[in-house]
Amino acid sequence: MNILGVLQKLASESGFAAFFLTAGGWKNLVMILISFVLLYLGIIKKFEPLLLCGIAFGCLLSNLSYFIGMSENAMYHPELWTAFLDSASPYYHSYGHIMANAGLLDFFYIGVKAGIYPSLIFMGVGAMTDFGPLLSNPKSLLLGAAAQLGVFVAFFGAVLLGFTGPQAASIGIIGGADGPTAIFLTTKLAPELLGPIAIAAYSYMALIPMIQPPIMRWMTTQKMREVKMVQTREVSKTEKIMFPVVVATFVILLLPSTAPLIGCLMLGNLFRECGVTDRLSDTAQNALMNIVTIFLATSVGATMVAQSFLNWDTIKIIVLGLIAFSISTAGGLLGGIIMYKTSGGAINPLIGSAGVSAVPMAARVSQDVGRKYNKNNYLLMHAMGPNVAGVIGSAIAAGFLLSVFG
Amino acid sequence: MIDLVNISVGSAGLYAVLGYIVVFLGLVLLMCVLLIMIKIMNKNRPAAAAPAEAAADSAQPAGVPAPGTAGELKLYDTDPRDAAMIMAIVADTLGKPLNELRVISIREVKEDEV
Q: In what order do the strands lie in the sheet with B74-76?
């Protein structure tokens, strides 16, 4: 028995050796440090911890086990997915090839690639969301539309910076402030950018309380911020039951590419509102949502392999994401200001910034800023209208971009 | 035919404007559909709801809809500020986000009622 030979084999196959012996192995070390920073942000700073912890750990696992030229023990194999997407490859769109060679995280990633996880997350979001504030004031939809401005400005900016059309569309959707929508669109159009786009989308969503208030103060006057809105009308149970059916029917007929997202969002909402599927609603809101979040977060994190993450494109995406978020906030506020003027000062424009989606964080920010300037102001329910309208708006924006670039 | 992969800046600008218009028009149309739906559904509602509401009114003192809500939360002898604090405390005690709780009404219990 050649003990020295066995020890030498073990040493040469270890990850420690791979950091220094494989091409670009040092980049894995950098990615591992980045995953530690993301874990810190999730656990200590509580930035979207439910997602960021999984994303960070997926990134850690992937960079601990995958090295160029040493991928037999890898949990995620980027080269398998490159072949899967290459129309010239014999394994183009071959799930069989993936499954025959996959690591654990490759299996998880199939759910992302097939668009299953983002749609199931949307089902959970639908089951958690009360669309009553939107139904009590359907004009909120206009604010949800206005706040999609950042999506298209960032798309244009990304093209200016040299990204391809599908990549620019995926970067632009960060401005929709909707993680599952961003992941859904990116896996369809530019899967090579999934890691940085998911990180940018969720990081900025967590930073909304810091990003939005300065823009809100800059764009509105003290008089506008102090406007106290009158209560909206009561919404009947029947209206709430009909809402998901009507929205799904209308939006999917209008833009069929939105079907997976809008269909699941409205199905979840129907479970919530119809009154006879409480068990399903509970499962969609809790168990299913939690299970899918684990798979989604770890598999998205796994795509952050050093070779595709550590480049200038990532920096550009982070910057464009911030621009997209800020301009979407400004677009929503602009819509709010127009409604303030046209309503004779009855509408507080601060609720416009909630149109960026990011439920319910953005609505809470509107409430907090409004109360800062008028202690008797309760904007939360008024802001929830544009907030949930933003979810539908970002899904429509994604549907448009998918129709054009898909 | 426009090359959508290596898209030119001019075409990108056009698609950006077109996309924003499509989102806006889509949501405006959805708003119109919802307004029509609401109008149809509430056509017969006041007449049908009136007797039930009258019975409820006679059974208990009139509740004031809480400001800033969709009209669901009724406050009976309760200050809106107190109501906000009560809801925040309940949410904190239960460990649930406030937006996941549905508070129907809050009524002050007088000492002699206890």
A: B64-65, B74-76, B105-107
User: Confidence class of residue A195 from pLDDT cuts 50, 70 and 90?
Assistant: confident
Query: In percent, how much of chain A has pLDDT > 90?
Result: 66
What is the tens place of the pLDDT at every residue in B22-79?
999 999 999 999 999 999 888 866 654 444 444 444 444 556 666 656 556 778 778 8
Give the position of tokens 């919404």. A235
Domain ranges of chain B: 8-59, 63-107
State residue B51's pLDDT score.
47
Hey, is the C-beta of B13 within 8 angstroms of any chain A C-beta? yes
- Assess whether pLDDT exceeds 50 at residue A334: yes
Separation CA B113–CA A293 (nearest Å): 48
Could you say which residues from 35 to 64 on chain B have a Cβ atom under 8 Å away from some Cβ of chain A? 35, 37-38, 41-42, 45
Q: Both tokens of residue A70?
A: 């040493």
Q: What confidence score (pLDDT) does residue B57 get?
A: 47
Q: Is the peptide bond before A360 cis (omega within 30 degrees of 0)?
A: yes
Contact between chains at B71 and A234 (C-beta distance less than 8 A): yes
- Asked if A236 lies within 8 A of B16 by C-beta distance, the reply is no
- Give the gap in angstroms from C-alpha B113 to the nearest C-alpha of chain A: 30
pLDDT tens column, A244-297: 999 999 999 998 989 999 999 999 999 999 999 999 999 999 999 999 999 999
Q: Which of A235, A259, A132 is nearest to A184 (CA)?
A: A259
Q: Which of A173, A172, A176, A175 is nearest to A158 (CA)?
A: A172
* Of B86, B8, B103, B64, residue with least CA distance to A165: B8
The whole-angstrom distance between A107's CA and the closest CA on chain B is 29
State how far the Cα of A176 lies from the Cα of A7, in Å rounded to an integer. 53
What confidence score (pLDDT) does residue B54 get?
A: 45
Pick the residue from chain B with its C-alpha nearest to A153: B16
Q: Contact B69/A247, CB-based, under 8 Å? A: no
User: To probe the interface with A, which of B23, B32, B37 has the most A CB atoms within 10 Å?
Assistant: B23
Above pLDDT 70, what percent of chain A?
A: 100
CA distance A131 to A270: 11
Cβ-based contacts of A380 with chain B (< 8 Å) = 68
CB pair distance less than 8 Å for B17 and A152: yes
**Subunit contact A233:B70, Cβ cutoff 8 A:** yes
Q: Flag whether residue A208 sits within 8 Å of chain B, measured between CB atoms.
A: no
B4–chain A Cβ distance below 8 A for any pair? yes
Dihedral, CA of residue A56, residue A258, residue B21 and residue A338, to nearest 10: -70
Contact B16 A145 (CB under 8 A): no
A39 within 8 A of A56, measured Cβ to Cβ: yes
Cβ-Cβ contacts under 8 Å for A43 (sequence gap 6 or more): A49, A53
